[in-house]
Structure formats: structure tokens, C-alpha cells
Amino acid sequence: MAEYGHLKRVPMVTVKRLSRYLRALEKFQEKGFETVSSEELAGELNVKPSQLRKDLAYFGEFGTRGMGYSIPKLAEELRRILGLHRQWAIAIIGVGNLGTALLRYKGLNEKGFRIAALLDDDPEKVGSSRSGVHIFHIDDLPNLVKEKNIQIAILTVPAPAARAVADLAVKSGIKAILNFAPVSIKAPPDIAVMHVDISSELKILSHHLAELDLSGETVGYPIVEDNGE
Amino acid sequence: MAEYGHLKRVPMVTVKRLSRYLRALEKFQEKGFETVSSEELAGELNVKPSQLRKDLAYFGEFGTRGMGYSIPKLAEELRRILGLHRQWAIAIIGVGNLGTALLRYKGLNEKGFRIAALLDDDPEKVGSSRSGVHIFHIDDLPNLVKEKNIQIAILTVPAPAARAVADLAVKSGIKAILNFAPVSIKAPPDIAVMHVDISSELKILSHHLAELDLSGETVGYPIVEDNGE
DNA sequence: TAGATTGTTAATCGATTAACAATC
DNA sequence: TAGATTGTTAATCGATTAACAATC
User: Fold this and answer.
1) Domains and CATH numbers, chain B
2) Is the pLDDT reported for residue B139 higher than 90?
């Protein structure tokens, strides 16, 4: 999907794991460790050590043979690779339940990201603000993108509106979209689009449960182990 | 990850696409179509027709050569495969911003799913209810699972608590977990665990933006096309 | 030097895709 | 029968993994 401009094209799964490695590193750091081996770090994430090393190899050599990786150094490299030394401005489009929750969600307010604007088309909402962020009309998106230098759009609009809003975002100059609407978004190849499809994840679970049922495992009336442990 | 009990092991990506096919089918149905070809359906989802046919082939033969697929019939088959003819009971564990938003989120209240209980460890919340769903103490999980026949746990607790809560859920007999905490959950192989890692998705976008920047594309000060169209 | 652990290669595994025979 | 489109095979592509030489 996205072009990463490396010699070898970096798989998106690798980039995704990079951010998980970073999180695990920060945890190790909090515990006071200085150094970590690929085995320790990978173990934390249900990943093979060789996969971790392969993932890092796309970007350079960050370890010391015989020693492992310096935690602060590797963390810093990962932050750089992930672009987290910069500050990205986000617009949340669609101020419903989910949009409002994300606005207040800790994971979205980490270092590196700033929610710069909310947008909606409901006249009752436009003009007010939530958690100190102003709600603009969706038609203002092109101006906002320019004025506030917004790079990321989070789409929390209802499904029927999602495609049109995504098109508007792209036209406005947005280069990265995080889409929560259960709709496929089509965008030019230089635009990164990530889909978070909660209802679809749930259906995968449903499928799993149905299969368990077929295979004869009791579902719903489980044997609870004695809480002696 | 999950065992599906088929002759050929069904890849999880296939199951994920199945739920997207179903959604697209429902859209075609609303428009009044009777029949759809693999090319039309796949086109809607940026998927190759041969991939759609391959995905379906794991489960049976649902089309008619020369004709395509009957929309209501295929939709029904997909619902059956995905276990959506049944009703699954969900517990949302962690009644913060995200948990509350999901409670009210349309995608979680579709046919086939029912939010049967909320859980938290905050004494201020326990005992009250939200949107008509009672908030129990997290220690009640084992009883609730039995009494209310809960099969799915949605984890919206803070990261440090997530693993312990997941362990409790598994011990209580939960067979499917949808985890929103930025933590790797380890569970036995018969437990399906899906991760929704919003902060990680965001970092992938950040990486993409940083790469765009390196490759010389202006980020943040885009040329907005004239709105003549 | 001996032990540890990286970075990298090559083998394996699994998913995607094009192509086509089957058949409506 | 001719045209369309499926179901399935085989080829391709890409990601994972084991193994190991390099090197701290």
C-alpha cells in the first residue's frame, strides 16, 4: 500500500511490529534495564527472535554482537524510524461516541500527536468544543488542513458518509487516514490508509466461537477452574 | 492462531475478508440487486476476483457458473459461516472513555451480539449502569460468565491491568477476547484473541508521513485543487 | 580465547494471483 | 450453441524461520 522509499520495500507488518517493539522497550526501560537481547524482546511479544532481527535489518544495524541492544539507543532509533520525533496534527472527523472517546483516549494523545481540530456536519455541534478542541464544520476541512498544518485525519463518521469524507480529506491534502467506518476507502498510492474495523474483528471472534461449538467444545457453560491458585 | 476445524486450515485473513464480503453484499441487496459476480463484489473491496472465489472455496460452492452468486443466498451462507445466526453475549471490561463509547457504538450492537454486562474495578462506577447495562465489579467476572452465558470479553482497561484481566477472563471460561489495550495477550490456543491497537495504527501513519517527507513530498502544506469539480 | 548474540542467508512456509477447464 | 462466470489448479510472490558466519 504505502511506499517507504527504502532499498528493500518494507512490509507493513514489519512497521506495525516496530511500534510494538518500541512499546516493549519502554517497558524494559521503566524496569531499569540497560540492554536487551532479541530473544528477550521478542519473547515479550510472541515473536521469533529472528523475525525481530530481520525487521530491524530493513533499517540498519542497531545491536552489538554478543551484547544485544542498548535499550535507550534502540528506542531512539525506532522513534526516529516511526517519525515520532516530529509532532503530527490530527483532525477527528465525526464527533459521535467513538470520535469523542478517541479525543480523550490516552493512546491518541501520546507524544508525537496532537488533536488539532474536530469536525462534524451537525449544526448543533459545530461551533462548540470538547475537551478544549473546537468543532468545525466539515466543509472547513480544506482550510483547516492548510491553516493548522493537519496531516492525519481520523474518520469516525457513519459508514454512508465515509467515502465522501475521505475523498474530501485527500483533496484537502491529508496524507494519512485512520478509518473507523466499516467501508473500504480508496485513495491514491501516496496516501496511507489504515482501517480499524471493530465490527469485523468481532465477527472473526464469532466465527471462532461457532467453530468451537461445532468441534464439540462447550461454549458458554465452561468449567471454571477452582480458584485455588 | 485459531483452529477452525476445516479440512484445509482457513487463514484468518480469509475470515476477515468474509465479513467484508457480507457487508458489501448487504449493500448490493439494499440497492435491489439479486445477483452479483465475483468481479463486481471484489471490485467493491479492492480485492481480486480470484481471491474472493478462493476465500469462498474454503467453505463450499455457493455460486452458479455463468451467473454469479445469488445475493441473499451467499449472504446467508456467510452469516452462517461467521456464526451470526447465533446471539453472542459480550462483557465490556473497563468502563472508561473507550469502553463507554463501544457500549453505544452501532457496530457493536448489530444483530448477533448483545452487550450483557459492564465491568470495572472503580467503586464509584460499580453498581451504577450505563445505557441500561449494569456495571459489575471485575471480581464478579467468573460468576457473570456462567450466569449470563458470556462468550466474548472486550478489554478496554488500562495497559498495566490488561494481562491480569485477560487471564481472569480465560480462567472464567471466556473463549474470545477483543483487546484494545496496547499489550500482547497470551492465551491458550483454543481462545481467540483479536488486537485493536489504535496507537500502533497511528504510528504506522506517522512512519508513512515521515517517509513522504524524506522523499521530498511536501507534507502539511499541500496544493489544494481548485474546487471546480 | 570462549561464550554470546547479532546480522544475513537460504529454506520453508503460506497467501495471492493468473489461467483455464468445468458448466450454467 | 456461444457467452459468461464459477471452482480449482499451478505459478508466483512475499513473509517467516532456522541456521550460521561474523564479531563483540
Assistant:
1) 12-81 (1.10.10.10), 88-200 (3.40.50.720)
2) yes
